[in-house]
């Protein structure tokens, strides 16, 4: 009787161990290097995903979306029934991957990982100006009051590392030594312009230092400083205020709510695109009214809100 009990106990422990091991996870060389649950490609190289040893495998992929939760279906990868799956930086970016496994009577799925296309975000620039100190005179061109400034930001600062900033359109990228358009000694993702010029940048991704992007002269912003008729930089200049307004939902596809109840009404709201062009403007906006931004082109925007006391708030939002 005793040997039989020992045998049953060993069999039971083996069964529990089998159950405990039916817990698949995905590993790969790039996974977690930049983001915990993502694989970021530098180019079109391949990457091999792998899981532990089980009886059978089926790999699945799901297309990425802004939506939460993701409503795109999980699709079985045709022929992907082995312990490993090879993906590449051209066809598989912006997809999630998971593997379903069986071991005996155990069936389980791994947590999902993402093949991220973030490393390929095209360069974009955000221009920020103080209301009352500038006017838009053309596509990508501003007249700005002497004594004021224009702040230029890389729209994807997490992505890009070392920058080269220009004050005029260069002959050709990458930057060459002695190029008079290069602003020497400036390598960060922000530049504040106080002199006339045509501004843009060239930057290399931090994760993939050999992958560099040029903003493109068509996206440079021309700034003309002068004593323009609209300038008012005296003691009654609009006072900048902390970005303390509630902006929601963010990102948004159609309606955006701005403000706080204590302010009641905002005398003026301006939405400015990355080139510095005013894309939308509204007067006497109440804090609890939706602002329809559905007509805006998807991208990053600055929203400048002036309350009834003349205080100015600046916030960023994303139009889906």
Keyphrases for this structure?
single chain, 320 residues, mainly beta, 6-stranded mixed beta sheet, 1 helix, 6% helix, disordered N terminus, Secre_tail
What is the strand and helix layout of this fold?
Blueprint: H1 2-21, E1 38-40, E2 46-50, E3 56-63, E4 75-76, E5 84-88, E6 95-103, E7 106-109, E8 113-116, E9 125-129, E10 134-138, E11 141-145, E12 150-154, E13 160-166, E14 190-193, E15 197-205, E16 212-214, E17 221-226, E18 239-240, E19 247-248, E20 255-258, E21 265-272, E22 278-286, E23 291-292, E24 299-307, E25 311-319
Parallel strand pairs: 1-8, 11-17, 18-25
Antiparallel strand pairs: 2-5, 3-4, 3-6, 6-7, 6-8, 9-12, 10-11, 12-14, 13-15, 15-16, 15-17, 19-20, 20-23, 21-22, 21-24, 24-25
